[in-house]
Design a protein that fits this description.
This protein is mainly α and 325 residues long. 63% of the residues lie in helices and 6% in strands. It has a 3-stranded antiparallel sheet. A hairpin with a 5-residue loop joins strand 1 (282-290) and strand 2 (296-297). Helix 7 runs antiparallel to helix 8 (139-151) and helix 8 runs antiparallel to helix 9 (155-167). It is elongated and about 110 Å long. The termini are far apart. Zinc ion is lined by residues 290, 292-293, 295, 304, 306-307, 309, 312.
Length: 325
């Protein structure tokens, strides 16, 4: 026993012991990493197989001489030209080739975008969740996931995603109230209760929520005329008559009693009224521009269909001669 303690205290034996220990730990770590990587690779392979489509060009694209950068470039061209099936195929092949986590994350997002554009929402969601497994604070993935959930009408998940974006210092307060209103709108309760619940939300200064309330329930609160002018023009029903801008607009549209005379400060309204009163057929034409990505759309949007931004829609209008019939 004494001999053992004597040996144990020997510094040389201690050094050997520590060296062996380090060697064992390094060996275990190597095997762990090897199997973990293998496991990850298998998971990715399974993922790719699940989505893979048949394509005659597959072998050609799998050619090791075709670089990852070129594959991604090809896929982006197909996405832009609307050939989504081809783009998806190429991104899946790119995923097989990629080793770097950052590159894998970028391909996941591009692939999710194509699935989203092609209308495969569930697949888009699954790919985005994979991207978020790599980096949960991926703002781009979270923003797209929010829109995917919105299209799937999974409002609870939209709110969860907004919470994640809030942690990344995104301004989401108004959008959260808007989503809550959508949730209430879908509930299986009577109209009166829905309106009551929605009006209990924080609607002050929330332009999109105020528009939603007018669009669905024709309720006027503090809406600025120019945030709902297209809806007012479509309905041609008098509302909010105590506000001067609304009064002017209804006067221009000849919806007020004939004896009422109002000076029209707005030049477009004045032009509309003069032409209309002189038997010209006129109409107001609306267009919608995203303040974020500057794209123009034919219809109003609460979330931009291109950059997915919320409350970025600017309503433009112009008076035109109506040349139909
Ligand atoms: Zn946009």
């Amino acid at each position: 026993m004494d001999l053992f303690f004597l040996d144990y205290r020997d510094p040389l034996v201690g050094l050997i012991f520590i060296t062996i220990l380090i060697f064992i730990i390094a060996l275990l770590n190597y095997f762990w990493r090897f199997f973990a990587y293998k496991d990850e690779e298998e998971k990715l392979e399974k993922f790719i197989k699940k989505f893979e489509l048949n394509n005659v060009h597959k072998d050609l694209l799998k050619d090791p001489n075709l670089s990852l950068a070129n594959l991604i470039f090809l896929a982006s061209i197909f996405t832009r030209s609307g050939e989504f099936e081809k783009a998806i195929q190429i991104y899946l092949i790119a995923l097989e080739k990629v080793k770097d986590k950052k590159e894998q994350e970028d391909i996941f997002i591009s692939l999710a975008e194509v699935y989203f554009k092609a209308g495969f929402l569930e697949r888009s969601k699954e790919v985005l969740l994979n991207a978020l497994k790599i980096r949960p604070r991926n703002e781009k993935a979270l923003k797209l996931l929010k829109i995917v959930y919105l299209r799937l009408r999974s409002y609870k998940e939209v709110l969860d995603t907004l919470e994640c974006l809030l942690e990344l210092d995104e301004e989401v307060k108004e959008e959260k109230e808007f989503i809550k209103a959508l949730m209430i709108k879908e509930q299986d309760i009577d109209q009166k209760s829905k309106i009551e619940l929605i009006l209990n939300l924080d609607i002050k200064d929330n332009i999109m929520l105020q528009r939603l309330i007018f669009e669905n329930y024709q309720i006027i609160k503090d809406q600025n005329l120019f945030d709902i002018i297209d809806l007012i023009y479509r309905d041609k029903k008098i509302v909010k008559i105590d506000k001067q801008e609304y009064k002017e607009f209804f006067y221009a549209l000849n919806l007020l009693p004939k004896e009422e005379k109002i000076f029209l400060k707005n030049q477009n309204f004045r032009m509309f009224k003069i032409l209309n009163d002189n038997d010209f057929k006129v109409k107001i034409v609306f267009s919608y521009v995203c303040l974020e990505c500057k794209n123009a759309m034919p219809l109003f949007f609460y979330h931009c269909p291109i950059c997915y931004g919320f409350n970025k829609c600017k309503i433009l209008y112009e008076v035109k001669l109506d040349e139909t019939n």
